[in-house]
């Protein structure tokens, strides 16, 4: 008798497992995340701190990866905030499909180095190789709210990572006595001017810059630039790699 009862209990447990598994499959849609959505996206960040803009068009890549049949993770590495480089990774962003477009939402408490605990909410869309995401970050320790708006385009993986200034030349500048020398290791470019060069003369210098193929640079080449003090140029490689 005990064996019969045990046998029927096993059948009931097996049936229950099969039922819950079937329900899970039905309720949990399977999306082509790895085939269409996952990858590295090249784009820009706009950042607000307590409603005040502190950055616009900051170049940055994000990575989207599969975390479940209808769940993705979103990682933003080296996110600059108040002089700190942070990595924000949201593990469980739930996808919903609307035609060819996907929306995702997620909330997570993160413990970030240097600033402690943060509550992060994210909402965004992925459509035809492009992603847009809004991140609202509540920095509990500082009592501040950070809003990040990201827009990017998915990379193919074949893009170049070279971000170099290959030529940096002042043409027709009489105050320049030695043309610039580029040090790729330190990221420094130095040149010499005549003794007694005025700030007005240094602010009127125009140079021609050559950079790696398919990269971009700011400030742009061919425009006046004020060299009365140090100037920082930012080169962005085809794959989003940034070098200053």
Plain-language structure description:
- This protein is mostly beta strands and 244 residues long.
- It is elongated, with a radius of gyration of 26 Å.
- Mean pLDDT is 88; it is low at 5-25.
- It has helices at 2-27, 33-37, 199-203, and strands at 39-49, 52-68, 71-81, 84-98, 101-112, 116-127, 130-139, 144-154, 165-170, 176-183, 188-193, 205-211, 216-218, 224-225, 234-236, 242-243.
- It starts with a helix and ends with a strand.
- The strands form four sheets. It has an eight-stranded antiparallel barrel. A three-stranded antiparallel beta sheet has the order 9-12-14. Strands 13-15-16 form a three-stranded antiparallel beta sheet, with no helix packed on it.
Helical element count? 3
Anisotropy-based shape: elongated
Mean pLDDT: 88
**Portion in beta strands:** over 45%
What is the radius of gyration computed over CA atoms, rounded to a whole number of angstroms?
26 Å
N-to-C SSE string, H for helix and E for strand: HHEEEEEEEEEEEHEEEEE
Low-confidence stretches: 5-25
Number of strands: 16
Largest sheet at a glance? 8 strands, antiparallel, barrel
Helix content: 10-25%
Derived from helix and strand composition plus strand pairing, the structural class reads: mainly beta
Widest beta sheet: strand line-up: 1-2-3-4-5-6-7-8
- Please give the alpha-carbon distance between the first and last residues: 80 Å
Keywords:
244 residues; mainly beta; eight-stranded antiparallel barrel; three-stranded antiparallel β-sheet
